[in-house]
Amino acid sequence: MVVEMERRWHRAINVALALASMLAIFLLPQPAQAVSQTWYLTDIASGTNYIMNKGSTAGGGTSINITKGANEIWQANEVASVTVGFQAGTWTGDLHHTGTQYVEPVVVDIGVWDGSSFTSYGYASGTVYDLEPTWSFTISASAFDIPAGQYLAFKVSNNSGQNRTLEVATDGTSFVTSPSSDPGYPIPELPTIILLGAGLACLGGYIIFMRRKRRSISP
């Protein structure tokens, strides 16, 4: 009887593991299928920062003034639902600006806003020209985690001696795009969650099996 129960539980565990393997093959996002996400800068305020919307240019006005020597931060419109880990990768985007001088140094950073401070994990610096108002940037960022309850964030620093105005919101002309390895901020994609659940189910089945086995052989 005990031997037959062990066989049944072994078969059940093997079936669960096989199903988990199939899920891994068919549901886990492959590198070629990964999708970048574009975050559009808006003029919507959130505390000391502004909001950036994923895949949407919704916003109020069309410009934000960044005074000389200052910076502004845009945080994602949603907090991370769980800890979201970004691999090292390339972030790209455009800033559309206006100003009064021909040459202006600008720095952009990608990172994390924890509710009170910004931590950078990659930046790009460049010189923008009034005659070429759109600056296309590329940020080589290191791997970083966004803890649950914190925000993906983007900072623009005006290191010039003149005020700058960014065109944002409904124009959709200022934005930042994540690498193709984006895990699915603000929460990892559904296949990852399914695989995690399958793994936990297998572990739970194994634990139940071991407990019943101990009981069956106890005097």
Question: Mind explaining what this structure looks like?
Answer:
This protein is α+β, with helices and mostly antiparallel strands and 219 residues long. It folds into two domains: 2-29 and 190-217; 33-177, Galactose-binding domain-like (Jelly Rolls). It is 24% helix and 40% strand. The chain has two helices and 13 strands. The protein has helices at 2-26, 190-217, and strands spanning 38-46, 49-54, 63-66, 71-76, 84-86, 89-98, 103-113, 118-129, 134-141, 144-146, 151-158, 164-167, 175-177. The strands form two sheets. Strands 1, 2, 3, 4, 6, 7, 8, 9, 11, 12 and 13 form an eleven-stranded mixed β-sheet that branches. A hairpin with a 2-residue loop joins strand 1 (38-46) and strand 2. Helix 1 (2-26) packs antiparallel against helix 2 (190-217). The radius of gyration is 24 Å and the shape is elongated.
Provide the CATH top-level class of the largest domain.
Mainly Beta
Named CATH topology of the largest domain: Jelly Rolls
Low-confidence stretches: 23-33
Let me know the CATH homologous superfamily of the largest domain.
Answer: Galactose-binding domain-like
Estimated helix fraction:
10-25%
Residue fraction in strands: 35-45%
CATH architecture identity of the largest domain: Sandwich
Q: Total number of β-strand segments? A: 13
The Cα radius of gyration reads 24 Å
Biggest sheet details: 11 strands, mixed
Alpha-beta content class: alpha+beta
Mean pLDDT: 78
Principal-axis shape equals: elongated
Alpha-carbon distance between the two ends = 15 Å
Could you say how many structural domains there are in total?
Answer: 2
The number of helical segments is 2
Topology order in helix (H) and strand (E) letters: HEEEEEEEEEEEEEH
